[in-house]
Amino acid sequence: MTRRRFLKEVGVAAAGLGALAGVPSLALAQGGVTRVVPTPGPTATPAPTRTYRLTADLGVPGDGRTECSLLIGQAMQRVPAGSTVVCDARRYLINGTLGFVGLRDITLQGNGTTFFRTEGHGTPTRPRPYVYVDEYSNLTLLDFTVEGFETVWTYSYDTEFDGGFRIRSGNGLLIRNVFVHHVGGDGFQIQGRLDRTRAARNVTLDAVRVNYARRQGITLTNCDGVVVQGALITWTGRSAFDAEPYAPTWYSDRITVRRCRATHILNYFMAAAGEGRHDGMLLEDNECIGGLGLGVIGTNSVPATGVVVRNNRLHWSDPELVQRRNLGDLHIRASDAVSVTGNHLVFRSETSVDIWAPSGWVANNTFAGVNGGLRLIGGVRGSNNTVTRMSGAPAPIQVLGEPEMR
User: Fold this and answer.
1) Is the separation of the CB atoms in 258 and 245 below 8 Å?
2) How far is Cα 304 from Cα 278, in angstroms, rounded to an integer?
3) Which one-letter DSSP state was computed for residue 71?
4) Could you tell me the CA-to-CA distances from 67 to 9, 56, 64, 76, 198 in Å, in that order?
5) Facing residues of 288 across strands?
6) Three-class SS of residue 399?
7) What distance in Å separates the CA atoms of residue 173 and residue 179, rounded to the nearest whole number?
8) β 277-284/397-399 pair status
9) Residues 6+ apart with CB under 8 A from 362
10) For residue 394, what is the DSSP state?
11) CA-to-CA distance for 196 and 207, rounded, in angstroms?
12) Residues 402, 376: Cα–Cα separation, whole Å
């Protein structure tokens, strides 16, 4: 056999082994040797990947003067499934709403592009978000900025419908390294439809940033399966995160917030009350400076389920946004077991940290600056918790009776 033929056959064999890595297999023992036999399965031909440049190929002017809201949305509609649309770090004016609707298996690679608005407000009946995402399927949005024109960060009813993103129904959405700033409403508003078959499903916000959002940093309602990780949220008119199903028919299911940072927020790190249902919430490895406290999760009338709060850090003192009102702390009301472990939370509160559930475990936490101490209500038990008042003196730990669930 020639050297060329040998190298060719080795290359084919190596490629075959690589392909088998993702194929289900059966291991058969023969003479002390394990032989791997691929199990039969359907064969699929991957769709060809096509790349289009937003300006050069799709004709959207990036001169910073031409109104591009409709042009960009129409251009995205024209590319076939499996395509990547690449921007050229330009500035695109979007005084309307930039719509990403009905897109399937599409990637938008921003490369540092900025989509900006210079005017216009929405109304309660006609919201006017900067970017609108609906009926998505495996949509990926990467590396761009949404720039608003608001000059203050405090909440205003008149502007709260001008969020950076409004995300409605679909399945499979990744937004990574996107910066939203100076907008009148939420930085990101995830709000699927009340019909659970049309929820906002399987959404990941990775390394996003929100600054100067006059409402919440990120809102999470009527959704199922949302992961927010590595986010940075600063200067918000309300809370950093809001998972409040507003009405009894609303819901917020399977929410994970991890490795996020927040500061200069007016209310809570996580506001999760409301009259609807929470089913599954994980707060993990987050850090917050300032605000009213770590969170309010569940209500007396509608307790949450599946609540895990671990390894979070919070300190009430924010030298750039000094709050003089009595600050809150942490309140959880659940209808099943809760887990609160490894948190270091420093409050300035006259009330108590309340963990209320039929069962659960609160362990290895520091709750400082809570004059009312720690209350474990129902079947919740605790171990190795340090609880102090604002003066630094020890605060009471109370283990109370079963809650009256209503």
Assistant:
1) no
2) 5
3) H
4) 57, 17, 8, 16, 31
5) 262, 314
6) strand
7) 16
8) unpaired
9) 338, 340, 341, 355, 374, 376, 380, 381, 382, 383, 385
10) B
11) 27
12) 10
Taking residue 314's Cβ as centre, other Cβ atoms within 10 Å add up to 23
CA distance 398 to 143: 49
CA terminus-to-terminus distance, the chain: 81
234 Cβ neighbours under 8 A, 6+ residues apart: 210, 211, 212, 262, 263, 264, 265
Distance between CA atoms of residues 98 and 128, nearest Å: 10
> What tokens appear for 98 in the block?
């930039």
Per-residue pLDDT 10s for the chain (406 aa) are 443 443 343 333 333 333 333 333 333 333 333 333 344 444 444 455 699 999 999 999 999 999 999 999 999 999 999 999 999 889 999 999 999 999 999 999 999 999 999 987 777 777 799 999 999 999 999 999 999 999 999 999 989 999 999 999 999 999 999 999 999 999 999 999 999 999 999 999 999 999 999 999 999 999 999 999 999 999 999 999 999 898 999 999 999 999 999 999 999 999 999 899 889 999 999 999 999 999 999 988 899 999 999 999 999 999 999 887 777 889 999 999 999 999 999 999 999 999 999 999 999 999 999 999 999 999 999 999 999 999 999 999 999 976 544 3
- State whether the Cα torsion 273-185-221-224 is positive or negative: negative
Tokens of 183: 């907008």
DSSP code, position 18: H
Chain centroid, CA 276 distance in Å: 19
Tell me the residue type at 348. R
**Cβ distance 368 to 348 under 8 Å?**
no
- β-strand partners of 322: none
Tell me the C-alpha distance between 79 and 101, whole Å.
13
Answer yes or no: pTM beyond 0.90: no
Do residues 175 and 235 lie in contact, with contact meaning Cβ atoms separated by under 8 Å? no
Q: What is residue 10's DSSP assignment?
A: H
